[in-house]
Each structure stands twice: as structure tokens, then as C-alpha cells.
Amino acid sequence: xxxxxxxxxxxxxxxxxxxxxxxxxxxxxxxxxxxxxxxxxxxxxxxxxxxxxxxxxxxxxxxxxxxxxxxxxxxxxxxxxxxxxxxxxxxxxxxxxxxxxxxxxxxxxxxxxxxxxxxxxxxxxxxxxxx
Length: 131
What we know:
The chain is of the alpha/beta class. It has helices at residues 3-12, 114-123, and strands at residues 16-18, 38-40, 60-62, 82-84, 104-106, 128-130.
């Protein structure tokens, strides 16, 4: 086995990754990290969440202070329990309505309307929203 092969196998087994405050903008390389349960991307240049669609084991996702606006790719992340979206460009919470395991949502300083919050709380009555 080569050193690269060993490294690839090691990284593929990661369950926790903290990239907070880094220059990360492209999430495509993370697609192979399918065992991730916690991903920290706050204070990065991230805007496109599409590559996260395959990370179905994620339970905690930190996206505060990013350029994220579209939550559609998160619709399939049904194991999410905590989602941090403060100081993002997010305004539409509809993609989160089916995330029955979501327990905590942080939305400080976003463009999310009161109507969006009310609709999400009706869909997910156990959800705690901080804004």
C-alpha cells in the first residue's frame, strides 16, 4: 500500500473536521468524507453547499459568517441535529422543513423573515431557533 493510499483511507474515515476561519471556498474535495458527523465551516469563503449533499451522516454543521444563501442541498441531510447559519445570506428555510431530527437552528443576523421562522416551527415543533 502506498502512503497516499493510506492517507486517503485515513481521511475517508474522518468523523470531525474543523475548517473554521480558513480560506476554504470549494467543498468538492469533502465529498469523499462520507463518515463526517461534524463539519465546521464558519468564517470561510464557502457559498455552494451542493457537495455536502452526499454527507448524509452529518449531525452538526457550522456555516456562520459564510456566503451561503441556498439551503436546498441540505434537504437530504436528515440526521442534522444542529445547524448554525448566523450572518449568512440565507432567507429561505423551506429546504429544512423535512429535517425531523433538527433540534437547534441559529439564525442571528440573517435575511430570514418571521413568516419563514413560523412556518419552520410549525413543521418542526421541537426545533429551538435562536435569532
